[in-house]
Amino acid sequence: NNNLEQQAQAIxxxxxxxxxxxxxIMPSDWKVSQLGSIAKISTEVFSPAKNPNVEVEHYSxxxxxxxxxxxFETSNGIKSNKYRLSSNSVMISKLNPDTKRIWRPYCIxxxxxxxxxxxxxxxxxxxxxxxxxxxxxxxxxxxxxxxHTTGSTNSRQRATPSITLTYDIIVPDEKTIxxxxxxxxxxxxxxxxxxxxNQKLAETRDKLLPKLMSGKLDVSDIDL
Length: 224
Prior knowledge:
Elements: H1 2-16, E1 31-34, E2 39-41, E3 45-46, E4 55-59, H2 61-67, E5 71-74, E6 82-84, E7 90-93, E8 102-103, E9 112-114, E10 118-123, H3 129-136, H4 139-146, E11 149-150, E12 158-159, H5 161-164, E13 168-171, H6 174-214
Parallel strand pairs: 4-9
Antiparallel strand pairs: 1-13, 2-10, 3-6, 4-5, 6-9, 7-8, 7-10, 11-12
Helix pairs in contact: 1-6
């Protein structure tokens, strides 16, 4: 997964920072703009109090740090409002942005939600989702995010969401964006599928281990 992420970022840098496809010069029909020209911030609220007994797919900072997989739980156990997510969302943590936490939500269920400690971006053109993901995953954006924080301590610094929309970006023509996404989207999809498969394997392991330890499951006859 780390290798795939590095490959995707190397391609992004090659195309849109170093302009290697055009001998190091930005094509004349590309333009300098801001992130807000291709993405908007979504703050659609999910209220647990108004949606009792609903199973949610909860993307939180602890869930990201533990295994980069959402927690499935009922809304009754959630004490504060969250943001709703869609299959086009991409998000990055605004809390302590020097520790980068960036996510493409999997939207496995009907109710994907996330902590309000994330900034949720929705592409103006849904086809540009992974171009936007690559932008917010870039070194330049990370540096910008870290330079626009509030809070006096390292443990509680937060980036200001609205300012991120002023981040300067290169906007190529749509054909180039789609060509880029056709290369990196399968990489990001593979990462997602690997994470999902790891979760299934972990669940299977956790079911089998107690049976092995108790002797209920006998594997002595298996020839390795």
